[in-house]
Amino acid sequence: MRMSTQRSGMRALALASAGALTAALFSMAPVASAAPAPPVSDSGPLASLNDKGGNGDVPAHPLAIANKKAAQKQAVIERRLKNGAKDSPKTVKVGKGQYVELQREATDPVFVIIVEFGDQQYPNPIFQGPPADGSTTDVTGPLHNEIPAPDRSVDNSTLWQADYNKAHYEDMYFNRMAKYFQTESSNRYSVTGEVQGWVKVPFNEALYGRNYCGGIVCATTKALTRDAMAVWVEQQLDSGKSMADIQTYLKKFDVWDRYDLDGDGVFNEPDGYIDHMQVVHAGGDEAAGDPHQGTDAIWSHRWYANLQAGGPGGLAGVQIGTNGGLVSSSLIPNNPTGVWLGDYTVQPENGGLGVFTHEYTHDLGLPDMYDTSGNTGGAENSTAFWTLMSSGANIGDGGPEGIGDDPTDLSAWELLNLGWLGAQEGKGPFYQVVQYGEKANIKLGPNVPGTKSPQAAFVVLPDKLVDRDLGPGAEAGDYFWAKGKQDFTSTMTAPAAAGALAAKVRYDIEDGWDYAFVQAQVGGAWVAVKTNLSTTTDPQGNNPTGTGITGRSAGYDTGAWVSLTATLPTGTTAVRFAYSNDPAEFGDGFGVDSVTVGGAAIADSAWTLDGFQTAVNGVVKEAFFNAYALENRQYDGYDTSLKTAYNFGFADRPDWVETYPYQNGLLVWYWNEQYADNNVGDHPGGGLILPVDAHPSFHHYADGQLMRQRLLAYDSTFGTEPTDAITIHKAGQAATIPSQPAVNVFDDTKSWWSNCDADACTGSHAGRYQPGWTGVDVPKTGTTVTVNGATTGSHLNITVAPKK
After folding, report:
1. What is the pTM of this model?
2. Which InterPro entries match (predicted)?
């Protein structure tokens, strides 16, 4: 999702009660009956008015297969870094009929539809009249080319041109965006395609953009893809094209089996869905504080249109040309084509290159790097202008024609996840892996595009151990727990004889993928033992004996333990519990307590643990992958825009920005899989991937409040040159951050983060921005990174070494 470009995140939202609104929606009769829906699939839920996309621009994906593939890919990347793998396979097998695509190297076809809105108000009270928050009174359209020209004497931030025609978007997508991805991928990836429209849907934008659900992206926004494509199909038929012509044309945009639905490991083949569905809507972006449609404007985002059941592979989606599903209407044509869409992105009419590339990169699988709560007045982290997937999407060139058209580069972590640092044509890989405790002298090349030198380096650290309280056992005292490891079987083994086995267990195991087992040793061999909790189902080939335990135990969320019983066969000399994981995600794990055989308890001291651990008073250690990512950021290519970071600083000119330079040099990121996101408002000092601040001192505005994180992050780089002093404004009052001495050594035994400044701590500091949101708290591993010599130039000489 696009990060808000407004000067304080986003104006406060006066959202109505989601419960009351959805209740009203359910009480309304449908506008008109649609074509009968196919049978509901077990492989994906249908969209509901209760669905809330949240406050980010990448709402949670509704398909389990999408989330599974993402977890599998991440697990493979981490494992390969730990093993120091030098090869760069494009696909990797991770299980029976399970493959992940590690590198996307192609010129992908992209279907772009540009759509404007009519004046019809959807006949439901939720969408009647203006929004309840009063952000607009306009309930018409908008049509395209209705965005007023900005007054350049007071507005140098709004992008605008007189005519947003089809040719503009052809240039945006297939010239400018194509070149961006060619550069970022070092000529591995690009796009081609066509733009269709403008098409006009009958309803106004309120149907698709209104924040009725309590978030900034609600489920009805998905219907815009369905309705726009249905109108387009009708137009094609009216122009004389046959349905066969339309089907043939649409199938040109289906060459990628994104989720490998047939499980054959071949991704470059059709799967029945358009690969990249791009919707451009008339009017401005809610993320940019559109003053005309207000909170009825659509917030740019990437999501999945799970409106109809029965799509290819059994998934929910939208059959192009039809009108069925959520907020259906007979005003929308109904001409089924047999071709489907699912994943989509949506951007505004006057969006710049930044938002188009940002949202499209979401479609390639990358998350937001900014703190998504900041979109509605929450927190802000230090990723800021350092990446396209944060404020780097909104940056400009410092000129008078608006911001958002000159995005910065992707970070090293993002390039790694896209596979764009891997080996290519016998060269590479274009990154260097340094294992913990090793010393390496590295000549870092430009971050993009690739050269003979590494574009990035990754320092793999010892797993981060974090305490987790799982709650009390079945009885007072300690118990045993296996959290799970990638592609690993944890065991706990003890001497035992034949007889009745009883135990208390509690588990959260990835259903149908991972299993727990009871096994008995008979004649020196381990044999499977059926239990009262066993299942014979084996959808993935991971339960060949039909004795596995999977899913969640009854009452798991309330801390309940359940009884496990089994019979150990004659000749048993030992018993063991095993918990087996596939190479990707897993649940909370498998717990065992109070084990008896023949009514006699097995002492805790009798067990030999391999992967299991003792939960002392219910507390176990969880291990998480973590590493440092190192990259050389210079004022070149798209990163030239680092010279012109922006700040809204004038109350009398709210749309006016001033610029200041982010500092070139070595940027050190801390990658920590303890966290799933970068929402520092929820976990100050921690995130999935956050930059270390080389100059972690705090600076304040003239009113005494702490400066926002994207200002404080400007001098995050390490190098051999003093930083530039910058002067910025808040409400017209100037404040200066003075030049700071060069810092050329990153030593993680030192502190680079603080939860407090001299005034107060996070949560109690005056103003919106809090000290603990700045930078990242790194582990004390004794790892150092030294910048040797000049900071400028195409290469950067660094040394990674253990601290002496």
Report:
1. 0.92
2. InhA-like_VEG, Peptidase_M6-like_domain, TAT_signal
